[in-house]
Amino acid sequence: MDARRAEVRALEAEIAALRRACEEPRAPGEDTSRARKSLQEIHQSDTGEWAASKDLRGHLGHLESELLFLSTLTGINIINYSMKTEDLTSTENTEKSIKKVLQRHRLSGNCHMITFQLEFQILEIQNKESLSSVITDLNIIMEPTEYSELSEFVSRAEDRRDLLMFFRSLHFFVEWCEYRKCTFEHFKEKYSEAVRLPEGAASSCMVVQSPRQPGFELVIVWRIQIDEEGKVLPKLDLLTKVPQQALELDKNRVLETAPLGFRALLGVLGIEAALESLITSLCVGENH
């Protein structure tokens, strides 16, 4: 009986102690401190996520600025790009710590007025000592197709699977096309009565005709060639179109040797000065 009373008293004492603890006023700022601690934990978590997001945005912005710089520098703009990978590692290669991965790339873009689509595959082989990559397939589609020089060059680039040569040569080819167009437009504007562009300024042909001698014409054919190594070079030729009577009177064979003389003039004066000299000798001289 006494033991039970002792247990009851002990329980009553514990209950009373718990009640006093609940009724005791908390220290000033204790709730605020707990809330502040909770907010700090939340803030630290959000700050970490925000910092990571900020770093990602900064990295993306840096890549975009680099891409814009390269596009401005080369004139090549990549519009769409995708890549798929396939693990070709066999069981035997795995045992030898050799990993093979095939990457399938697709991209489309333009270089000024010329658009292109590329599909190529890259095989990566990695072992303990090194990592090697090789282009195993390359397919190029280009528009417009009226540039015969480009069609031949594209076939060579595909056969060699040489992406670097393709982009480098395309860049310089387009630069020469733009220069040719600007040069033709300049002389057409300056000598409007004498210069004709039958196929437009973007073509490879400019005709210089004599205002005083109908039927007497000089035709400049300006081609842009890409050699076997991908080097882009201009090639200008002069063709003469004169009446038969003028040929018969040309005892010194000036007209016959004019193409060779024009090439020599190009070597001495350069393209623009040689064309200027040719036009003025044919047209301006007749006015004096």
Automatic annotation (TrEMBL):
Domain of life of the organism encoding this protein: Eukaryota
GO CC aspect terms: chromosome, centromeric region; nucleus
UniProt cross-references to InterPro entries, sorted A to Z: CENP-P
A Pfam family reported for this protein in Swiss-Prot or TrEMBL: CENP-P
Region of interest: Disordered: 22-46
One BP annotation, GO: CENP-A containing chromatin assembly
Entries under PANTHER family matching the protein: CENTROMERE PROTEIN P
Record protein name field: Centromere protein P
Annotated gene: CENPP
